[in-house]
Amino acid sequence: MIFRLIGESFRFAADALRQNKLRTMLSLLGITIGIFTIIAVFSGVDTLRNKLQESVDKLGSNTLFVQKWPWGFGGDYPWWKYINRPDPSIRDYEALKERMGNVDGISFEASASNRTIKYRSSSVNGVTLNAGTQDYDKTWTLDFQEGRYFTESEGKSGAPVTIIGADVASGLFNGESAVGKQIKVMGRRLTIVGVFKKEGEDMIGMSQDKNVLIPLNLARGLFDVQNGNYGPQITVRGKANIPLEEVESELEGAMRSIHRTKPGAEEDFALNKTTMISNQLDMMFKMVRIAGWVIGGFSILVGGFGIANIMFVSVKERTNIIGIQKSLGAKNYFILLQFMFEAVALCVLGGLLGLFLVYSLTLVFTYVVKVEVVLYMKNVIMGIGISVVIGMISGFWPAFSASRLDPVEAIRS
């Protein structure tokens, strides 16, 4: 019985929408624009957020960085508190290796940016030269398209070997195998033992495509790896089954002990972690989402009033039909459902049209502008859900007033 009533209500609603096509389309505009605005903003925000998070995840969710400078995100940065801190040293690294237990790997790293790599008459500019100790492959996730990582003996002896990024290999060798060839880095000839797998463009510059990696003991003969100009840091990756807070607490205690920091005194080092970036991203995108709700919300509000107005007009036009239905035994809830479904159907049509426009926009960005934007299923569901709720709210009072009409007065009108 209930399903039959719902089916009949849908038929009445569909007939009313078909008979007033122009009015229906004009009524849809407010909802369409509102849903389009909200879902377009959310799709752009979610796509950007996920891209940034993918870049952040490359750092490792259970990875800590011992550095001189704490990561800062806008606002007043008290640089004067940190300027006199010492840079992380090899001595700190060696002491941590002896003291830390809940870790998979600890590495000391330094990097020299904007270098030129040469092979015969070919060269690649703007390359970042990274130097790391043997556990570098344990603190960072490295994928190879060719070759291998450094052996233990190569790392300890500072052998003249290197691993290069995919863009560097492409620029120097133009598709040929790179392993075994010798390149010139900072005046030294180095033999390539591996090539990193191509990762593509990265939102925060974490791609290995234009990087070159050498053993730290080799780098010590090329530049001062403990000099602050080369960004020395100690990277610590905790064990997967150990909470990051526990690893951080152990690392903080070990560093305070190594630096002989007195109880209650402020640390002279910074422990940075990826959750700091993730939290900042959440705060930033939360504000953008609120802006999307405000902008789209006004449009949806106007659209909702438009739907309610059209529904009152529809009730007025069909008053005598309502009277005939009620005189033939139609219950109040049947009349209520009939107009409620009509209002919901209007809003859902508007919402679907808005979603179609968003999807079309994502295709334009992805294939024409070459910037990938994704319409996620959660946003599709949210768009339809908002449409249904607005339809129920804007259609309730007109539907309720229709259901309360007196059949004799309604037929007479």
Automatic annotation (TrEMBL):
Keywords for the protein's UniProt record, in alphabetical order: Cell membrane, Membrane, Transmembrane, Transmembrane helix
Record's GO cellular component terms: plasma membrane
Domain MacB-like periplasmic core: 24-252
Transmembrane parts of this sequence: 25-45, 290-315, 335-368, 380-400
Highest taxon of source: Bacteria
UniProt membrane topology term: Multi-pass membrane protein
UniProt GO MF annotations: transmembrane transporter activity
Subcellular location field: Cell membrane
Domain ABC3 transporter permease C-terminal stretches: 294-407
Database matches in InterPro entries: ABC3_permease_C, MacB_PCD, Macrolide_Exporter_MacB
Pfam families given in the database record: FtsX (PF02687), MacB_PCD (PF12704)
Name of the protein: ABC transporter
Species whose genome carries this gene: Pedobacter cryoconitis
